[in-house]
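Problem: given the chain below (482 residues), write out its structure.
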Amino acid sequence: MLDLRPVGYVIGLLVASLGLTMLAPMGADLLAGNGHWFVFFESAVITILIGGMMSIACANGVTAGLSLRQTFLLTSLVWLTLPIFGAIPFVFGATGANYIDAFFEAMSGLTTTGATVFGQLDTLPDGLKLWRGILQWLGGVGIIVVAMVFLPELRVGGMQIFRSEGFETGGKILPRAGEIATQIAGIYVALTVACVLAYAATGMGGFDAIVHAMTTVSTGGMANYDGSFGAFGAGVHYVAIVFMILAALPFVRFVQLLAGTAEPLLQDRQIRAFMTILGFCVLLIASWLWGRSGFVSESALRDALFNVTSIMTGTGYASADYMGWGTFPVTMFFFIGLVGGCAGSTSCSVKVFRYQLLFASVKSQIRQIHSPHGIFTPRYEGRPISEDVLNSVMAFLVAFVLSLGVTSVLLGMTGLDFMTSVSGAAAALGNIGPGLGLQIGPAGNYANINDTAKMILAIAMLVGRLEIMVVLTILSVKFWRN
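Solution.
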């Protein structure tokens, strides 16, 4: 019988901690003097009480570490439970949202997807703007810890290849996780503070700088304005580009850099591939824009650099409505969103390293066909890739494509058109944010799609954030029988 008390204890503590963070937007509303602060006070009381009671009820089952099955459950239920409570301020608050809209927004925030159902963002109370930023910021640091600690131990999606890259948990997940989380959190906070200062130095107001730093470093992409980053100047755009790229790199490399070792950061094949793909796509889009306008301009290069970086890292900001750029850029944006950033970052989607492992396997198979009697072992970073890692990557890629297809069909069955269904499914599973088309594209939002589609997309965000295989394992009959 699976003991759920350790899982419930940890989740209760995290829910109570989420309630405590609601005091920050309450303070923002008090400072703004808008009277909206009481919404967060009520929400905080409800969340802290329920989380606290859950922890107390499960405290007698606490153990030194979690078993593998308990870890699978914890990893999944945290991302399901926190949005349930994170939605409360949206229901009680000025948005007047129904619970489905509120849950969609909270799930989008915590999974750092960045899709929104709210329009007229410019008029939202400061507390709600800050709350959206906090949800994304918490989700960003959370997914790094999950990627560096839990997913390698769970051996899903090929993440086990990174166990030797930085941290070894030694089989007991929670004790070692605290040390890893502390180092990662330090880097994460430092990057956020640096981003706040850089935004402020380039002309962004103090409050906007704080909120947008949270949603930039988390590669979440929720902005304070309906025009996203179109409301800001060139200097702000370049700051965002730099920090979106930094947030899409493996955070373990920053830890090693602070320890005095720069070589892993400079020699990382995944980072080099990410930067190469990014640079190539920027040049293609910029050349297209220059060709359309008939002259070379800095603004076209900046728009290409900003929006390609935003989509590829899964941030989802927009500095312009790229739906009006023509069919080629729109097609490019769809596919680069499925590339993603590096493993162990706040970025999203398939991740660069999986494509590298796939290509290494294909190359090995081609060489085997040419020389049937030879022995060709696929390698990554100079090390042989084990069969279980390759199988895990192949399983993930197949599951991702199938999930994309199933989600697209389900969305189509709710009445959405083809482009909205396919791009919405990709945006949710890849945690990218904006889709394609007039409805959910960079100039729109998800407000006008039906409630059934919103719930499908919210579930897809969860599945994508948990790297798909974790959720499929939880849903298997064998998991519960054993």
